[in-house]
Design goal:
The two termini are 20 Å apart. The protein is globular, with a radius of gyration of 21 Å. With 431 residues, the chain is mainly alpha-helical. Helices cover 69% and strands 0% of the residues.
Length: 431
């Protein structure tokens, strides 16, 4: 264990301390949850990074995801031909790539993965895994059954996890609502995992296994940060109870495939709309910031301002000093233009050998793994407000607290990865 591992270990507690500073009630912290949740993360990371069985298991998971990714290409080649051929590869008919085109080469993989998840849900494979995580969180961390089930669902799905606890939402406490919003923004949906794999698989061969690991680690991190920032002051109705997971709405496997593919299309369109809107708005804001800066002879942008804010956090999670400015910039970008752009930029930094340490790549991949950004805040608060309109004001009031908690949870996940990264023969670099 070198100095950077120790910095990451210290960073875990500094991040929790930051959440405690912003706590709504510093005297009512559930210390059992904090201790057990942190221990759960460390044990899981130990299994992934250091134990031969864990390394082997996640290498297999990584290989499976990469193989599934190759299957998704078949439909894309059929529909889009040369447009679907990624740079550096050739199509099934020998077509050469026309260059990187996000909408034809990456986004359509979401449709395939959405369909696959819908099918796995129908055959009751995913419900078994979700119930297992929910049982662990309920029993070990002493949180309500409803928020445990929602947090567990968020490891694998996005806003759809709201429907797993729909009957309980209107009676949830403020702490529970903060938790489910935080969990939604601190984790990733399996349907978009393929996008991040697409960006990083060439430079980071085992990235798929790590992104799955990161999403699992972020679940207890979300619970910890949410309960530090918004401790429970009331008694949840489902405290200590195991909540059953609803059945798939599909009546047969064909219908599940149809529903999954349609949901994937909606998600693709939504991502396109968000990227176009937020990148355009960012350009407008940057124009205003730059114009203001020029008055004082300063060359500034919104990203540069945010990078200064995230600079100490990049240091906290154990990023080597020479790479801190680049990662702080990515963390700032994730907040305003989504993790998709941040991962794309991370891939560029790796391919151009700008990052000087393998450790930086690993920690950044974990720390960026979450929907902790402004667009996601709007999606989750708006989505839940539609389901429970009577709690709309509460959700709006808790939204930015949840975004802060989710951001700290993602950083905590990166710090946990930093504690155990040794640079040896682990799953990390595909060795």
């Amino acid at each position: 264990m070198d100095k950077y591992n120790l910095v990451s270990l210290l960073g875990i507690f500094l991040l929790m301390g930051t959440a405690w500073i912003f706590s709504s009630n510093r005297r009512l912290i559930n210390w059992r949850l904090i201790f057990c949740g942190t221990l759960l993360q460390l044990i899981f990371a130990l299994f992934v990074f250091w134990m031969p069985a864990g390394v082997t298991f996640f290498r297999v998971i990584n290989d499976i995801v990469i193989k599934l990714f190759s299957f998704s290409k078949e439909g894309m080649y059929f529909l889009f031909g040369p447009l679907a051929v990624s740079p550096g590869t050739t199509g099934p008919g020998g077509e050469n790539s026309l260059g990187f085109i996000l909408v034809f080469q990456a986004l359509p993989t979401i449709i395939f993965f959405s369909t696959l998840m819908s099918l796995l849900y129908f055959i009751k494979f995913m419900p078994v895994i979700i119930r297992a995580f929910a049982w662990i969180f309920t029993r070990l961390l002493r949180v309500s059954g409803a928020e445990s089930l929602c947090v567990s669902s968020n490891i694998f799905v996005g806003i759809e996890s709201a429907f797993t606890i729909k009957p309980y939402l209107k009676d949830m406490t403020s702490s529970e609502l903060t938790t489910i919003l935080t969990a939604g923004m601190a984790t990733i949906a399996s349907t978009v995992l393929a996008l991040y794999v697409f960006f990083l698989k060439s430079q980071f061969p085992s990235v798929a296994g790590h992104l799955i690991s990161a999403s699992i680690l972020s679940a207890p991190a979300a619970l910890i940060m949410a309960k530090l920032i918004m401790p429970e002051v009331d008694k949840p109705k489902t405290l200590g109870k195991t909540i059953s997971l609803g059945e798939s709405e599909a009546t047969n496997w064909v219908e599940s495939i149809i529903k999954g593919s349609f949901e994937g299309v909606k998600l693709c369109v939504g991502i396109c709309a968000l990227l176009m809107a937020f990148l355009s708005l960012l350009a407008m804001v940057n124009w205003g910031v730059s114009s203001l800066g020029s008055v004082f002879n300063l060359d500034i942008t919104l990203e540069s301002i945010l990078s200064y804010i995230f600079y100490p956090f990049a240091c906290m999670i154990g990023i080597p000093c020479s790479d801190v400015p680049q990662i702080a910039n990515l963390l700032g970008k994730r907040l305003i233009v989504t993790e998709l752009i941040a991962y794309q930029n991370l891939a560029t930094l790796i391919s151009k050998n700008i990052l000087q340490h393998p450790r930086t790549v690993v920690i950044a991949a974990y720390a960026l793994c979450g929907f902790a950004h402004i667009a996601s805040l709007a999606i989750f608060v708006g989505g839940y407000a539609v389901i429970i309109p009577s709690r709309g004001k509460d959700l709006a009031k808790l939204g930015f607290k949840a975004l802060l908690a989710a951001t700290l949870a993602c950083l905590m996940t990166g710090a946990v990865a930093g504690v155990f990264f040794s640079g040896g023969e682990t799953i990390l670099l595909g060795k």
